[in-house]
Each structure stands twice: as C-alpha cells, then as structure tokens.
C-alpha cells in the first residue's frame, strides 16, 4: 500500500522534533560563512551579480576590552632605531672637492658626477646613481699609476752597489780547467726597478689605511651618502672602506669626464703625499 505525501508529513515532523536536541552542536561546528551560487543560464557577468552570500555568525565576545595591558620593563632591551643623517648641501660637498682637488676641483666634475662619486650603493636602497662602477675604474687607474711610480723611482744606494758588483763578471773554471768569464745578463735602464714593482709594493701605495687617512683629511666622511649597519659604531660599519671606495670613484669620475691626463695629475699628487708619509 503506497503512502501519500500528506500521510508522511506528520511522521517527518515528529522525527525532526526528536532529533533537534542532538543536531544543534553540529550546526555550530559548521563554517561561519557559507556562499551559495545561484545557477545562471545567461553569461558569467550576470552570474556574478546574482551571487548571494549567506552569513551565519556566532555571538562575539569582546575579550580585548577586558584584557589587562602588558607590563613594560623599566629598561628597554633593544635600542631605538636611529635615523642616520647624510649631507644634502651642495656647498658642503663643493668645499670637500675644493680641499681634495684644489681650487679648480669644483669645475672638473659636473654636479651629477660629484654626487654620484660620494654615493654608496647602500644609500636609498640603490635607487639613486651610486659609485660602484666608477670605483672599479678608479681602482684600476690607481694601481696602474702606482706601478709606474715605483718603476720610475731612483734606485737606492744599496741596490746601485749591488748592480755595480754584478757588472764585473766573475771568473769561472770549466771542467777542462779552462778559465773564462761568466755571461752578464742584459739590463736596460728602463727596467732597473722591475723587480721592485711587486703586488705588495703597489699595495703599500694604495692601501686602505693610507687612502682613508687621505679622505679624512679632505673631509670626505662628512659628505658621503651611505647607510651604516650600526649608526652608533661607524668604524664597525666600515666607514673607512666606504671612504676608500669614494676616493676610487672620484678617480674614475675624473678619468671618465676629463680624460686620463687629469686623472694622472690627481693620482700623482695622491701618491706623492703617500710617499712623504712612508
């Protein structure tokens, strides 16, 4: 015997009333937000407009209103970040170039190159032109002229006496008891200091200590644009290394804008000051 829909309705309603006390915990464990999509037979844009969202939210408890503020230590464990200020005055920059390059030093470089030569890659996250490639060019030029400076130096008296003693060929006795003079190696006046042009000798003229002292005397530390790792300890952050890189960049900028002759004049004056301090 088939049952009609009217006869099944009372049975279903009674089953729902019996199961309702056991279903309410499951209802609260469902996701808070449910999204139902109504089917659309037109296009995707109209389907997006017909999308409806039904939200089921549980009552919120304002816990933050009753939370006590966290206790504060009387002494800060971490230092407050300090903003490192750099020079932005064109007048101060020109004074440094006047000390470094002489009275005509301001006219040697353009204002853009003057700023770029003293700007490190760490300044402003590298968004402004910095001196990395200029420093590479200037470092090669400095090594070249330091090597030529060593080759053109006058020989010391001890080296001269050693050469004169070698000029007299010693007598040598062969296996057949014949006496003959040993051959003299060829020596040219232009190559008299070739053995002295070693990597260590060139490094003494272009060392970081000497160039950092030269940069500090000109006031380069006050106009450099860079961002130190530790503003409270500039030596640990590498201020001398950045200053030496700026000196190399200035040499490269002079060679790039005014030619190798102007760069040679500046490097020669730098090497002469280094020679007097050695």
Write up this protein.
This protein has a domain of 157 residues: Ribonuclease iii, N-terminal Endonuclease Domain, Chain A (Orthogonal Bundle). It contains 12 helices and 4 strands; from the N terminus they run H-E-H-E-H-H-H-H-H-E-E-H-H-H-H-H. The strands form 2 sheets. The chain has a two-stranded antiparallel ribbon with strand order 1-2. A two-stranded antiparallel ribbon has the order 3-4. Helix 5 runs antiparallel to helix 11 and helix 6 crosses helix 8. It is elongated. The N and C termini lie far apart (120 Å).
Keywords summarizing the entry:
278 residues; mainly alpha; Ribonuclease iii, N-terminal Endonuclease Domain, Chain A; two-stranded antiparallel sheet; 4 strands; 52% helix; elongated
The CATH topology of one domain turns out to be Ribonuclease iii, N-terminal Endonuclease Domain, Chain A
Number of helices: 12
Q: If classified by CATH, what would the architecture of one domain be? A: Orthogonal Bundle
Using only CA atoms, what is the Rg? 41 Å
Share in β-strands: 5-15%
Concise summary:
With 278 residues, this protein is mostly helical.
Topology, please?
Blueprint: H1 5-28, E1 33-36, H2 44-49, E2 52-55, H3 90-101, H4 105-108, H5 111-117, H6 132-151, H7 157-167, E3 171-173, E4 179-181, H8 199-205, H9 208-218, H10 234-237, H11 239-258, H12 260-277
Helix pairs in contact: 5-11, 6-8, 6-11, 6-12, 9-11, 11-12
InterPro entries: Ribosomal_mL57, RNase_III_dom, RNase_III_sf
Pfam family, one: Ribonucleas_3_3
Region (Disordered): 155-176
């Amino acid at each position: 015997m088939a049952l009609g829909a009217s006869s099944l309705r009372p049975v279903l309603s009674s089953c729902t009333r019996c199961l309702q006390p056991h279903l309410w915990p499951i209802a609260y464990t469902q996701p808070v937000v449910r999204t139902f999509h109504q089917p659309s037979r037109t296009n995707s844009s109209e389907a997006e407009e017909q999308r409806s969202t039904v939200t089921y939210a549980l009552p919120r408890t304002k816990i933050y209103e009753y939370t006590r503020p966290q206790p504060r230590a009387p002494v800060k464990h971490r230092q407050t970040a300090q903003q490192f200020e750099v020079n932005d005055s064109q007048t101060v920059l020109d004074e440094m170039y006047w000390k470094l390059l002489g009275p005509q030093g301001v006219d040697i470089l353009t204002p853009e190159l003057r700023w770029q030569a003293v700007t490190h890659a760490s300044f402003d996250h590298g968004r402004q032109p910095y001196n990395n490639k200029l420093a590479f060019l200037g470092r090669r030029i400095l090594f070249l002229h330091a090597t030529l400076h060593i080759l053109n130096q006058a020989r010391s008296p001890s080296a001269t006496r050693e050469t004169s003693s070698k000029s007299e060929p010693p007598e040598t006795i062969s296996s057949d008891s014949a006496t003959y003079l040993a051959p003299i190696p060829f020596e040219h006046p232009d190559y008299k200091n070739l053995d002295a042009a070693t990597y260590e000798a060139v490094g003494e003229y272009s060392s970081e200590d000497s160039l950092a002292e030269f940069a500090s005397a000109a006031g380069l530390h006050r106009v450099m644009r860079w961002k130190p790792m530790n503003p409270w300890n500039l030596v640990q952050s590498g201020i001398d290394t950045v200053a030496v890189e700026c000196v190399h960049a200035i040499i490269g900028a002079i060679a790039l804008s005014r030619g190798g002759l102007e760069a040679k004049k500046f490097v020669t004056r730098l090497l002469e000051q280094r020679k007097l301090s050695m």
